[in-house]
Amino acid sequence: MTEEIPPVFFSLGKQVKDEYGRPIGKIVSFKLNPHGIVDGIFLQHGDGEFKLYPAEQFKFDGSENVTLMSPVKARADRLCNEIPLIWRKDQALKELLEQEKIPKDLYEDLHNSFEGALNQLKAEAQGILEKIDKKLAECNNQIKELNSALVNLEIEKHIGKIDDTLYNTAMELLQQNIRWVNSERDDLESLKNKLSNILLGESFQEKTEEQKVEEPEKSEEVSGETSASSLPEPPEQPFVVYVKDTAEESQI
After folding, report:
1. Does the predicted TM-score (pTM) go above 0.85?
2. Which of 63, 56, 52 has the alpha carbon at shortest distance from 28?
3. Cβ distance 184 to 137 under 8 Å?
4. Closest Cα to residue 189, out of 146, 143, 148, 122?
5. pLDDT tens-digit profile of 169-194?
C-alpha cells in the first residue's frame, strides 16, 4: 500500500494567501508529530519573520493554491453546526421519554450530558463573538486609514506632485486593499449575525419550554376561577301584579 504524501510536501516555497486573496507568506517547512503526521507549517512573511501555524488552518487546492484559514472563522463555522446539532439531540431525547421509549433515569443522565455540552459551546460562542467584534473594529479602522491614504494621494495628484504612472500604481494597490478589507468585514458581519441568531434561537427555545411548564399551572388556576364565576345565579322570585277589572265593579 502506497503511503499518502502530505500536500505540504509539494507546496514548499509556494505563496500562501488568506481567504480574501491577501498574500500571507511562503511555506518554508513543516513540523511532524511522533506519528509522522504534519501538525504545523512554517511560513516566512514578507518582512522575513518565520511563524508556525497549525496545519488544520491550511487548505490545499492542488500544489499551487494554498489558503490560510482564519481560526476565528473556522471555529465559528463549527459552532454554528455543533450547537443546533446538540440541541436537536436533546429534543429527540425528550420525545423518546414522552413516548416512554427510555427510562427516566437514563433520560436525566443523557439530558444533563447534552445540557452541559450545550452550555459549554454557548460560552465558547460568546467568546468567539467577542473576537469577531474585535476583528470588525480592526477592519473598520483599516478602512478608515485606507480612505485617508486615498484622499492624500488624490490631493497630491491634484496639485501636480505625483505623475500619472505612480498615481495609478498606488491607486490600484489602495483600491485592492480596500476591497480585501471590505470583503473580510462583510464576511465577519454575516458570520456574527448567523452565530448570534443561533444563540438567540436557543435562548428562545429555552424560554418557550419554561413557559410551557408554567402554562398548565396557570390554566388550572384560571379554570378554577372560571368554574366559580360561571355558575348560574339563582332565579329571582316572580313579581306578580294583580289587575282589577273595572267592568265588574260597575255592574255591582
Report:
1. no
2. 52
3. no
4. 143
5. 999 999 999 999 999 999 999 999 99
